[in-house]
Design a protein that fits this description.
Layout lengths: L13 E2 L5 H12 L7 H14 L4 H11 L6 H8 L3 E2 L12 H7 L11 H17 L4 E5 L5 H9 L4 E6 L12 E5 L12 E7 L7 H11 E11 L5 H15 L2 H12 L4 H18 L5 H17 L4 H32 L3 H10 L3 E9 L8 E9 L4
Parallel strand pairs: 1-2, 3-4, 3-6, 4-5, 6-7
Antiparallel strand pairs: 7-9, 8-9
Length: 392
């Protein structure tokens, strides 16, 4: 079918971004119903794909439909016959940095999980021991402090350290009794006087800011002779590899589409939709319930099955459960997209790190590989950088 569908000429274009899920799904079915006559499964998954991804352009809409149905008509035919039936939000804001406050609500302590890998703990432990030998009451700044993992290690090195952690996000209160001062501020605009700190650390924190402005600010607040220890991402790191794995999964496997179809079923769908979701969940379990995120997906698919079983009788709770899974996965996708794009923009090799820091006046003492304790893991964790602000 190449032309416009009879009976809907002059219809108001459906807004892909702003239509409700039910209206968007109904609109896709109405416009493409004749094209998919005799193929209800493909039509359901096309509708679910559009609802899940809300593409921002006609080309993006066509790409989503074609991904769900590789036999779909070519883009030129789609644009000529169907383009006028859809509208897109021209004022939609571009995808931005993730909500780091939400990230630290979910993470128990570090961006690596409950604690830093052993190589980072050892790097920080050695550094803080050296700071303690020089000055057991040193004033220490942690840039991008998150949930205080680095300052907790610092406190174990010296009860006399004056500890300050800053983060652009709203983070949890530090453990009671550790006397850690936590301030919400940007690494690009440190609200401290010049030459305030004897030691500075940052574990995958400072590089998420405008790094040139952040390094200049870090130099400003360090005293002459002060030292710093940084853990930086690198483009071949384990962290980035895992982020890219998540992005590939969400792009290649119909995870969000399955959740969208489950939501549409609970909202008033057919038994055919329920069976389609159950079949797809069984397939997805084989590829998602392994690896670092296995426990999340086990709970997710158990929750979807519960929603399918009880959803019609407990509609509100079932819809909320599915939406929670969707929202978490969208947030995770945004975070990992930001990480991947940011690392691609700022991750550099050892020589480039040294050159960049020297440009701001630092003296770089060492840049070394951080490696996971598992010998079978060949990818590095990141760079460990030691530097100082010259006294003269």
């Amino acid at each position: 079918m190449q032309g416009k569908q009879p009976g809907i000429v002059g219809a108001v274009p459906i807004g892909i971004a702003k239509a409700s899920r039910a209206d968007l799904s109904a609109g896709i079915r109405s416009f493409l119903g004749a094209y998919y006559k005799g193929r209800p499964g493909e039509l359901e998954w096309v509708a679910a794909s559009v609802v899940a991804w809300r593409p921002g352009s006609l080309a993006g809409l066509h790409a989503r439909i074609a991904k769900a149905d590789p036999r779909f008509m070519p883009f030129e035919a789609f644009r000529e016959g169907w383009g006028s039936f859809f509208s897109f939000d021209a004022d939609a804001a571009p995808e931005s940095a993730p909500d780091w406050s939400r990230f630290w609500e979910m993470e128990p302590a570090t961006c690596y999980g409950r604690e830093y890998p052993a190589c980072i703990r050892a790097f920080l432990g050695k550094y803080f021991a050296e700071v303690q030998c020089r000055d057991p009451r040193a004033k220490v700044l942690d840039i991008g402090t998150g949930n205080h993992a680095a300052t907790v290690i610092a406190r174990s090195a010296s009860p006399g350290f004056q500890l300050y952690g800053i983060d652009i996000a709203k983070v949890r209160a530090p453990p009671v009794g550790l006397h850690i001062n936590v301030l919400q501020m940007s690494a690009e605009h440190l609200a401290f006087p010049d030459a305030e700190f004897a030691a500075v650390v940052s574990v995958n924190g400072i590089e998420y800011a405008d790094v040139d402005r952040a390094f200049a600010e870090m130099f400003r607040v360090m005293r002459p002779g002060a030292t710093a220890a940084l853990v930086l991402h690198r483009s071949d790191s384990l962290v980035l590899a895992r982020a890219l794995d998540v992005l590939r999964l969400l792009e290649d496997a119909p995870v969000l589409e399955t959740l969208a179809l489950a939501w549409l079923y609970v909202d008033g769908g057919t038994e055919f939709m329920r069976r389609e979701v159950e079949l797809q969940v069984a397939k997805l379990e084989k590829s998602t319930t392994v690896g670092p995120s296995a426990s999340f997906y086990v709970a997710l698919w158990d929750g979807v099955r519960s929603a399918l079983r009880d959803g019609k009788s407990q509609r509100t709770a079932a819809l909320r459960l599915i939406e929670q899974g969707e929202n978490y996965l969208r947030w995770t996708r945004n975070k990992n997209r930001f990480l991947a794009s940011h690392v691609a923009a700022v991750a550099i090799g050892r020589d480039q790190i040294i050159e960049r820091l020297v440009r701001f006046g630092f003296m770089v003492d060492n840049v070394e590989d951080l490696r996971a304790e598992d010998p079978s893991e060949t990818r590095p964790v990141g760079w460990a950088v030691r530097l100082n602000k010259p006294s003269g």
